[in-house]
Structure to design on (1555 residues):
């Protein structure tokens, strides 16, 4: 009997330890290489993709450590750290510089060239450039944008230029306020942007005149004064497409995600990081573009502001800046007055009357 | 600010953009005070909680301002013990002006060294009790109405007296509690005796009753032999049917330490548990087949001659019979067929246990809660006896008990088959207590219905049958008509669907509990054709933090809890309620005769807990509850630092307050702590340990089953006596005759002689016999005998595997059938074969094995812990663990809702099943599912919230698994079968 | 100055959530905010291990670097704390934190999260030590009372060690030596800058904080 027992007793010992394999589960590894938990620590690393168990409800509660990623401009590291690198090493410094450079360039431009236009004398005859609806849409949009830009800038850069000046209590309070402004105005901006795009898209479709305009950079090159354009010149169209519509849509989309208003998005930190980077880059682009636009719309071009303020422009202004449009109006292809609003000074265009 | 305030309105949580915008705007106010912070947390289920924490803050503030008026804060630290499990972790409660504001770890506690699991670290919530019952209530027209204490006590007592008159004292049933401290548990048994019935029980019945019976019948006492701390000395530990990491988390502190110094850990469980995760070897077995596995292991032990032959020879009776049976019947093929574990695995377990001695075994509910629980636990004992591990430090049977004081309540509390200290229901026992209580025995006898005094009562597991069973079939006059749930949940007993019917049929239902809500909701929930005159009362009891008293941890150490705070709301202590009801029922004088009365809640009288303990000290000799005077216990609590963590023994130490010398005491004077306090027995850290002198806590197996059986001596072999004993052979228990025979009688004083004349060591009220035997002669008062491998008075003297009543293995039912039906078993007819045969093919409709058990965050029926937001947050949904394969076959994905259906639901067609979430996990095998049993408050997919007393509902509610559990009771103790039954699972659509 | 660190010994952690509720109770942390949580990997399979995670008080803390209002600060003991009066609840810290430590009382629709809350290493906040204001915003300041984090002090198995980096590393090293395995230190590489990732035999000597 002892002999038989001995044979049985040696049975488990005879089972040789299996060879360790790189893709062992932790259980297998515990047998093949006791004490080596590498598969477990790999699982820890991968808990961003392959969640662990935790009874707490909520997204990513089972993630021990964020997944490793490499965002454009970052090292391969945990997503949070990668995002931090993109934001702190690229978006903030370069975005900030971009904005500063834009402002600086315009200041120099203004210093050297001064405001454009004013070469044609006023005729006293007015053309309706923007209907009240168009103006309302524009200003709502503009207002929202400014609010967003200011609040966004404070969020992104405030700690460099405001915090040292006003101290953290006040700065925190202010930023908290602005952040809320930003988060609530954002959705409003989304709506107004859509209206602006729909309203102005027709006149921003490129045509042959735009190529001429572009070739001569709107008249800055080659002399000969401003290049004739339709209702909006190629520069404005460019701004419409590349400074407003495209980044606007991107910003709105990413912003809505950041605001957790898009169902199915915004629960995961990875989504938020990407949304943020997209948002911030587009915001920098758009702000830069719109700094230009705002410059042109205010002090850059004489009379331009009036157009958006009152809706009317003088025929002289129209001829100087948008000659082809002026011609169409004159030719009756476009009515000089499209809305029922009274013209300033009650002087309606004779053409329109005709 | 207006906006902010508006947002606090706790209206219905309509979602939607508009609403979130509105809420959003309101929140955008840039201030952040504490309240806003709390309020803002109000999401989802937590909606009500922020508000509750608010009042909490207010309370503290209120107390602060009061203190300011009094000129300063009063900060006190009260030492108490966690009220959840039997580990017995000490807690320092910081009380500021009567408000429990903080909880600090007690690093000095040798038991827990400051450590806590989730429940222990969150007990402070009990001191706030936002979801507690705040005043007495009565069910009126389906709704709970507040009433005064006077009304409640008057009406309840009148009803009771009326029931008594009509149907006798046995028509009232009282379920007591393992949550009561020793004094309250003892007082409740006394209360029941003076009322005149044995119809009382508590959680131990459905917890470790099979252990207590099985183990006590094997070697003497039905308790954990060693301690959590002693497990540090183990070289191997076999956990079978225990998930200690969740159920006794702080015990893992000691075991993991042992493991780090080389202890091999084996876990045998149908599930891969958190405990299994820490094991060196995990063995998956089919639920309900532990005997096959254990005998499969013993097969290799015997085959290889690994048993401790000398030990078995000297100290065990009948092991040869077991050996023959095991070798013949439990060959590896049979073992594998029954439990699914192969030969190599069994061999390895045997080898580990044999080669790493002392090796210990741990079991818990995985073994006890079966129709064959009594046999399973004995199979575990047999393995340990064969290996010679019992009575050794590092070995032993480490039976992890349940509730914080289930050990104490079992020892001295409301059991239907014994008086405190396991004194049987013989007249002699009643006389012993009548004398100790100062009450006339004849008077007590008159209180009982004729002939019922010595008849074991109905068990808590069967109270529903006591109500529903045909009157002619039950072994007492009347059916049960009045029920007390005095610190016990309803959803912890099986057959919930039938329980609802029983509850509706009662004349009187009284719930005495800080959190009575599960019973309350179930009682208020509409039923069909119930008793129109039913009266339901809820009485707010205090928790253990609002009173003082002692509680017995699993290792038999007794700890004294100081009162932390005054009773909250209108709650009263359990012993005050017992006393006040006794006043109305007319036995108050008898109840409190020996006690000092002190002022409790509202300046009303209640018995002093210390004096109740002193009464216990004076009469519970059997298990050595006599040496633990309040003074000694309190000295231990104050000087925890002097006790060694590994041995639990004090090294020096003098209590500053009393001058008591602690040196040599074991922490908490683990019972048996024999003799009077003056004898200074140090307590017994490891039972039956012959390597120590009896006055050092040593011992041997008990002589409790006679001296001889079929010509074989039952007394221990020569030389196997406790160290230093004058009697070096086996000897019977001590009584006046033996003392005289040995010529030691004259060592008694004159007074002692008077008390001891005609008595044995258990009934000698002077403790003299014990003193002489132990102190003068190093002998054990309960004798020195062999452990019994064969328990001849049990249905299966040698443990037999028998399939559960509901088994999905018809083939094995054939081979391993259950017992025959029983008549008048604990007063009730009890079915075995009838049920099993009827359901032989049940596996075709219900193919999955259903088992149940614990989550670390919740405790018991769970009302208390699910009302604690810190815990409730961690487990917000009732679920079923389902193997990916089983889930895939049913088109179920993780997180889906599913219906769990079981056989009893066939009788109730409108009941679709219990609706729970699927947790798809490898923890269980493809044929088994597991459900936690801590939930209640949902019923067949419906939330019972409307039926709760207002404000007293748990934060998290879920379906109770015990609504789905089936019939089945242990053949010795009436333990309910909660660990092995069958079910089917379907995906819940919409 | 001691440099405070956490070690969670995955060979010991039993997922009992004691640390979680200890934190909740000590600081009255509201529902939904989880300063600490326990995650189990390989759940239900051999090789299963659990880790308790909270703020690691990183040496070069990403949260701190991205905060738009610079409300984080580091104590002399290397504990990373923040000022709730200044916090705007933008959530950036939670995007940046590798461990998912920052928590918010609200869900963040319209960016409304409420003030960020996270593990303070039981060191309170900028208010006066032990003041009511500090307690209400940040919970208890145990460090100021000369105590260590509640979660670590109450850990059921002493898996979670929190305190002076040198001391906890030492305790851990001894433990590793006796049991001869399980030497990996959860998260130290990421949090404190020394590579551990998974395979170093003993805990890296804790570096002292730079700031
Ligand atoms: N957190 C928490 N702790 C508690 C309690 C609580 O409610 N919550 N309650 C306390 C009480 S009252 C008690 S009694 C203890 C109970 O403590 P335990 O008994 O350890 O807990 P359970 O989860 O009921 O069951 C233990 C294991 O038995 C397994 N099991 C099921 N069937 C079988 C079987 O046939 N054979 C074997 N070998 N195993 C099986 C289950 O899968 C489960 O993992 O816990 C105490 N501690
Ligand atoms: N399916 C299934 N069922 C089971 C089990 C299982 O594993 N599976 N386990 C069984 C086991 S082991 C047990 S022990 C039981 C546990 O189940 P129960 O013990 O019935 O459940 P608890 O919720 O712990 O009940 C204790 C009650 O006492 C109250 N209480 C607390 N302190 C006090 C006090 O000081 N005074 C008074 N009067 N009341 C107080 C609590 O509020 C609570 O309502 O469940 C059993 N049921
Ligand atoms: C078009 C104008 C917008 C600009 C210029 C802009 C700019 C910015 C900037 C600069 C930041 C800060 C980035 C940083 O600190 O790193 C930011 C953040 C953010 N933006 Fe915008 N944004 C614009 C529109 C929107 C819109 C339309 C939405 C939403 C619908 C939105 C939602 C957000 C959110 C949610 C954040 C995160 C910051 C926080 O929650 O505190 N933004 N934006
Ligand atoms: C405060 C800042 C702004 C000022 C002062 C301003 C001013 C002007 C003015 C004067 C015009 C008329 C130019 C013309 O008559 O050709 C104009 C046109 C326009 N603006 Fe603005 N603007 C501002 C902001 C914005 C913003 C934020 C947007 C969009 C995001 C925007 C979109 C447009 C568009 C789409 C047109 C029509 C021209 C085109 O479609 O090419 N503007 N703006
Ligand atoms: S529940 Fe048990 S292990 Fe947990 S703290 Fe309480 S006594 Fe200790
Ligand atoms: S763990 Fe997260 S929150 Fe904590 S210091 Fe590191 S980055 Fe910051
Ligand atoms: S949520 Fe608060 S702490 Fe976090 S980055 Fe934003 S402002 Fe800073
Ligand atoms: S250190 Fe303090 S605050 Fe941090 S998780 Fe632990 S208990 Fe909570
Ligand atoms: S208390 Fe300790 S063992 Fe329990 S979950 Fe936390 S770290 Fe793990
Ligand atoms: Mo139990």
């Amino acid at each position: 009997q002892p002999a038989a027992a001995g044979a049985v007793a040696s049975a488990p010992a005879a089972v040789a330890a299996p060879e360790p394999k790189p893709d062992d589960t932790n259980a297998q590894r515990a047998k093949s290489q006791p004490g080596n938990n590498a598969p477990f620590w790999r699982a820890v690393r991968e808990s961003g993709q392959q969640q662990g168990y935790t009874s707490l409800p909520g997204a990513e509660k089972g993630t021990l450590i964020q997944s490793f990623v490499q965002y454009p401009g970052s090292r391969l590291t945990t997503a949070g750290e990668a995002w931090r690198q993109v934001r702190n090493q690229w978006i903030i410094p370069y975005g900030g510089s971009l904005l500063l450079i834009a402002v600086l360039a315009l200041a120099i431009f203004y210093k050297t060239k001064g405001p454009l236009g004013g070469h044609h004398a006023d005729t006293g005859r007015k053309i309706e450039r923007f209907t009240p609806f168009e103006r309302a849409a524009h200003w709502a949009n503009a207002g929202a944008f400014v609010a967003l830009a200011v609040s966004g800038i404070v969020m992104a850069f405030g700690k460099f230029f405001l915090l040292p000046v006003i101290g953290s209590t006040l700065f925190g309070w202010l930023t908290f306020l602005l952040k809320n402004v930003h988060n609530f105005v954002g959705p409003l901006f989304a709506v107004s942007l859509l209206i602006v795009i729909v309203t102005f898209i027709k006149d921003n479709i490129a045509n042959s005149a735009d190529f001429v305009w572009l070739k001569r950079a709107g008249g800055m090159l080659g002399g000969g004064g401003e290049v004739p354009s339709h209702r909006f010149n190629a520069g404005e169209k460019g701004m419409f497409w590349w400074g407003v519509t495209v980044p606007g849509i991107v910003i709105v989309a990413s912003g809505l995600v950041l605001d957790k208003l898009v169902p199915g998005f915004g629960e995961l930190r990875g989504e938020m990081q990407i949304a943020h980077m997209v948002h911030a880059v587009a915001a920098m682009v758009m702000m830069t573009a719109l700094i230009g636009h705002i410059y042109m719309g205010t002090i850059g071009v004489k009379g331009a502001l009036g157009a958006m303020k009152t809706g009317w422009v003088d025929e002289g202004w129209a001829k100087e800046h948008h000659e082809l449009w002026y011609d169409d109006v004159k030719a009756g292809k476009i009515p000089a007055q499209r809305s029922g609003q009274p013209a300033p000074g009650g002087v309606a265009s004779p053409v329109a009357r005709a | 600010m207006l906006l902010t305030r508006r947002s606090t309105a706790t209206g219905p949580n309509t979602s939607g953009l508009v609403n979130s915008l509105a809420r959003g705007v309101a929140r955008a106010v840039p201030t952040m005070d504490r309240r806003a912070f709390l309020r803002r947390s109000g999401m989802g289920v937590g909606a009500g909680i922020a508000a509750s924490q608010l009042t909490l803050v207010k309370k503290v503030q209120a107390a602060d301002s009061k203190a300011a008026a009094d000129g300063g804060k009063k900060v006190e630290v009260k030492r108490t013990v966690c009220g959840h499990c039997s580990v017995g972790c000490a807690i320092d409660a910081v009380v500021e002006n009567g408000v429990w504001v903080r909880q600090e770890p007690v690093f000095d506690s040798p038991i827990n060294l400051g450590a806590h699991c989730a429940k222990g670290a969150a007990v402070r919530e009990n001191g706030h009790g936002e979801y507690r019952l705040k005043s007495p209530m009565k069910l009126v027209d389906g709704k709970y109405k507040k009433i005064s204490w006077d009304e409640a006590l008057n009406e309840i007592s009148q009803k009771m007296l009326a029931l008594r008159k009509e149907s006798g004292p046995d028509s009232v049933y009282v379920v007591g509690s393992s949550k009561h401290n020793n004094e309250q548990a003892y007082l409740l048994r006394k209360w029941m005796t003076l009322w005149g019935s044995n119809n009382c029980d508590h959680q131990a019945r459905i917890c470790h009753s099979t252990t207590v019976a099985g183990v006590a019948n094997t070697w003497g006492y039905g308790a954990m032999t060693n301690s959590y701390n002693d497990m540090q000395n183990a070289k191997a530990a076999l956990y079978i049917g225990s998930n200690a990491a969740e159920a006794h988390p702080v015990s893992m502190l000691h075991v993991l330490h042992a493991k780090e110094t080389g202890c091999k850990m084996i876990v045998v469980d149908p599930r891969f548990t958190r405990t299994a995760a820490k094991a060196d070897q995990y063995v998956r077995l089919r639920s309900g087949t532990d005997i096959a596995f254990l005998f499969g292991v013993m097969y290799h032990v015997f085959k290889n001659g690994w048993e401790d032959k000398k030990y078995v020879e000297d100290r065990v009776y009948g092991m040869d019979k077991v050996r023959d049976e095991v070798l013949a019947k439990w060959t590896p093929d049979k073992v594998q067929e029954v439990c699914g574990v192969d030969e190599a695995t069994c061999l390895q377990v045997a080898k580990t246990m044999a080669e790493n001695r002392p090796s210990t075994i741990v079991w818990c509910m995985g073994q006890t809660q079966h129709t064959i629980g009594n046999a399973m636990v004995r199979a575990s004992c047999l393995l340990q006896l064969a290996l010679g591990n019992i009575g050794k430090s590092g070995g032993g049977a480490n039976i992890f008990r349940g509730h914080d004081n289930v050990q104490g309540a079992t020892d001295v509390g409301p059991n239907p088959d014994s008086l405190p200290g396991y004194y049987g229901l013989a007249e002699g026992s009643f006389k012993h207590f009548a004398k100790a209580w100062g009450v006339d025995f004849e008077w007590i006898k008159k209180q009982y219905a004729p002939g019922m005094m010595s008849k074991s009562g109905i068990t808590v597991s069967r109270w529903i049958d006591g109500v529903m069973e045909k009157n002619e079939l039950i072994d007492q006059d009347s059916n049960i008509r009045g029920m007390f749930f005095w610190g016990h949940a309803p959803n912890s007993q099986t057959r919930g669907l039938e329980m609802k019917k029983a509850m509706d049929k009662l004349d009187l239902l009284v719930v005495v509990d800080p959190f009575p809500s599960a019973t309350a909701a179930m009682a208020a929930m509409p039923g069909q054709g119930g008793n129109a005159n039913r009266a339901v009362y809820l009485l707010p009891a205090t928790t253990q933090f609002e009173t003082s008293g002692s509680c017995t941890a699993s290792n038999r150490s007794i700890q004294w809890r100081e009162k932390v705070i005054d009773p909250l709301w209108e709650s009263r202590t359990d012993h005050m309620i017992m006393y006040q009801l006794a006043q109305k029922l007319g036995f108050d004088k008898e109840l409190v005769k020996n006690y000092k009365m002190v002022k409790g809640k509202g300046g009303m009288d209640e018995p002093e807990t210390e004096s109740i303990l002193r009464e216990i000290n004076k009469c519970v000799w059997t298990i050595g509850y006599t040496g633990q005077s309040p003074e000694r216990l309190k000295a231990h609590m104050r000087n925890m630092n002097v006790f060694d963590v590994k041995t639990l023994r004090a090294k020096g130490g003098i209590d500053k307050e009393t001058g008591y010398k602690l040196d040599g005491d074991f922490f908490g004077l683990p019972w048996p702590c024999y003799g009077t306090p003056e004898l200074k027995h140090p307590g017994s850290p490891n039972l039956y340990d012959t390597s120590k002198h009896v006055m050092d806590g040593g011992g041997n197996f008990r002589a409790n089953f006679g001296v001889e059986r079929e010509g074989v001596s039952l007394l221990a072999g020569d030389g196997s006596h406790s160290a230093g004993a004058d009697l070096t052979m086996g000897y019977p228990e001590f009584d006046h005759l033996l003392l005289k025979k040995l010529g030691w009688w004259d060592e008694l004083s004159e007074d002692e002689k008077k008390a001891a004349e005609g008595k044995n060591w258990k009934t000698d009220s002077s403790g003299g016999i014990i003193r002489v035997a132990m102190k003068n002669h190093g002998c054990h008062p309960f004798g020195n005998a062999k452990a019994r491998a064969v328990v001849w008075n049990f249905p299966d003297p040698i443990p037999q595997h028998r399939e559960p009543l509901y088994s999905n293995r018809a083939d094995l039912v054939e081979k391993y059938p259950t017992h025959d039906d029983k008549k008048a078993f604990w007063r009730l007819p009890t079915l075995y074969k009838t049920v099993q045969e009827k359901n032989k093919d049940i596996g075709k409709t219900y193919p999955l094995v259903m088992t149940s058990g614990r989550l670390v965050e919740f405790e018991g029926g769970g009302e208390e812990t699910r009302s604690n937001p810190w815990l409730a947050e961690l487990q917000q949904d009732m679920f079923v663990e389902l193997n990916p394969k089983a889930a895939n076959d049913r088109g179920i994905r993780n997180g889906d809702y599913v219906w769990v259906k079981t056989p009893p639901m066939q009788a109730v067609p409108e009941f679709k099943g219990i609706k729970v979430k699927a947790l798809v996990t490898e923890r269980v095998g493809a044929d088994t599912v597991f459900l936690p049993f801590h939930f209640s408050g949902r019923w067949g997919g419906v939330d019972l919230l409307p039926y709760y007393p207002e404000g007293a509902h748990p934060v998290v509610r879920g379906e109770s698994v015990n609504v789905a559990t089936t019939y089945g009771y242990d053949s010795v103790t009436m333990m309910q079968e909660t660990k092995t039954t069958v079910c089917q699972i379907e995906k819940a659509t919409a | 100055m001691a440099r405070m660190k956490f070690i969670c010994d995955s060979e010991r952690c039993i997922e009992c959530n004691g640390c979680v509720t200890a934190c909740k109770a000590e600081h009255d942390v509201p529902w939904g905010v989880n300063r600490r949580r326990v995650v189990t990997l390989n759940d239900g399979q051999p090789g299963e291990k659990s880790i308790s995670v909270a703020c690691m008080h990183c040496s070069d803390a990403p949260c701190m670097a991205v905060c738009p209002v610079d409300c984080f600060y580091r104590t002399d003991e290397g504990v990373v704390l923040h000022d709730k009066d200044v916090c705007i609840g933008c959530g950036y810290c939670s995007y940046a934190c590798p461990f998912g430590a920052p928590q918010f009382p609200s869900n963040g629709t319209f960016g409304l999260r409420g003030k960020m809350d996270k593990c303070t290493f039981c060191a309170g906040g900028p208010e006066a030590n032990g003041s009511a204001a500090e307690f209400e915003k940040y919970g208890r300041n145990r460090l100021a009372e000369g105590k260590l984090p509640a979660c670590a002090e109450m850990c059921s198995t002493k898996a979670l060690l929190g305190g002076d980096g040198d001391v906890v590393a030492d305790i851990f090293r001894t433990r590793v030596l006796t049991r001869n395995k399980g030497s990996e230190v959860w998260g130290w590489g990421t949090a404190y800058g020394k590579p551990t990732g998974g395979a170093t035999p003993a805990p890296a000597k804790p570096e002292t904080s730079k700031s």
Summary: Chain B has four domains: 164-207+407-611, 210-399, 703-790, 810-987. Chain B is about 30% helix and 15% strand.
